[in-house]
TrEMBL record:
InterPro entries: Endo/exonu/phosph_ase_sf (IPR036691)
Domain of life the protein comes from: Bacteria
Protein name: Uncharacterized protein
Amino acid sequence: MTLSMRVFTLNCGNGSLGETAAEQLLEQFENTDTDLFILNCQEVNFNQALSELANRRQNIVALAGPPMVTHTKPLTQLHNNTGMMTIILHKRDITVIVEGDKQARRAASRFGGSSYNKGGVLTRIVASKEGEIFTIDDINAHLDAFSDATRAQDWANIHRLQKYPVTDWKSLCDAIPDLSCSGYDANTRNKLSLGEMQVNLCAWENPIDWDMKSLVMAPLGNVRESQYSTYKSDQPEILDEVDPKRANRTRGGMVDLVAYNDVEAARERLQSSDSALFKFSSIAISPKRKESRDHAVIGSDEIIITNKSDFARVREAIVCSLVEAAPQLASYLLSEDFEDNEENKIYLLEVYKRYLSPEGLLQKHLQLHAERLHYLEQFQNQNLEVEEKFKQQIFFGPQPWFAIDDEEQPFPTLEELKQRADYQYSVFMLLNLHSQFLNASASKQERELVQHIVDNSLTNMPKDLPSIEQQKWIKQTNQLLSINSLLHSYDRHLQQETEKESVKAAAEATSGLLQEKVSLIAGLKETLTDNKNPGEMLENMDNALDSRVKSLLEQHRHDDFLTKLYHKLKKLITGSELSYGGFFVAETTKLLDEESTPIVAPNSDQSV
């Protein structure tokens, strides 16, 4: 027995589908053998949409899923009748119920503006046909329209909806539906490449661009369908019209998409990574002038759902989720060697817990990527050279997040899977440190040293290093990055003092101590350019910061009566009379003396 369906997306502009679109959908559904149409409506007036679809055909039932209220236009602020709603059309011989829903917003308060109005809702749909039960997880979503970083954050929040905390094989089987699908307004407008010649690019044909990385690596269905123009697609010029509200974008593009899991499509993608990320939808109904709906209705090909064994269903769902982010692992799970047995059930459970759980690696990378894009946006008001350099530093190449080197064997045993996941978690932790310290850096030189420290740590960390030692490695890298921050903070103070003294023509003895401090700090910064492991670099820093160096750095450069009085008053108020150099020495010494206590990776069985 099979269940057939199509999934749709339609942004209704805070009104209804429109009589023309509603009639076309009902007529097509009535005249085919398809069992379900799942309509993911955004910015829809709930009452108007249902009035256009319900009780219009004798053999068609319109079932409304739980609404997610939004207020995206001034007139919608006064009521709760608009937002996202999933409407299921089904034939009368099919029984359909909605078991529950989960919502994701950036802000819980409706006064949060787009933070409240953008996000998504997951609806679990249960269909019964001739005694057989089919479960479908459907996501209806609407992403931010103006900020790449905020759009990526929306995606991370929505992606988490379809991930479940699991503890054993039974809970994993209960979590995985027969089909995962989605319909969403991604707000992915065409890009303008502003070189010598202006080029108009479809966002989904440029998946290596950083603003698209999250949407590609963590799909809401590995098969995507759409059209080149879905916003105001009745206006041919919309794809070339520059958007005054969005930098380097046109007003139109492939904005609305539907997606669903298909293991055969995943298999084809794994065999040829050059294959397109989307295909053209079989259904596209353009908006009509003078109707509220200004987006095209996009509908998928017919999807056939079959009841499969728990093992096949779980394996295929995991493969479809990891086909972009972990292609080698996905290929191994699809191989003939990966048979249905108890050992491989444990293996699949471990893969899900490590990579796809709510706190798994894929979700962590989505959050990190959103934060990186946010950091990048902070640099967009600086000169282009600084922005471009920062972009090159903060993003690490276009490769999949969990790619394996060609010479490595792809996870033949459970223990090797755990070792690989531990290593990839450690890589994530290093990248997270890299992003945080890079963003906090106040100078080009400081950023370059952050880059070197993390690059060096990533390069030198052995892949077979025990997990506890990996966490020690991470903490030592954090210590080096913190010392780098302290060095540059103190160096900026010394440079300011140097400028003051050059203006004031201070006494030679005082100037000599200042220059000696400048020289010492330069030498300590040089220590951070080594290509050694973090522990060795910390040891070298400790040796370089010997008692003589500490004494010189702690020494106050001014010893006149007023300066001494100032330091005594400072001690009375703050409890310390440390100079800038003394503070640097104290904080750096504290970092060097820290015990490198390891941290435990999430979803692992290790404990300290």
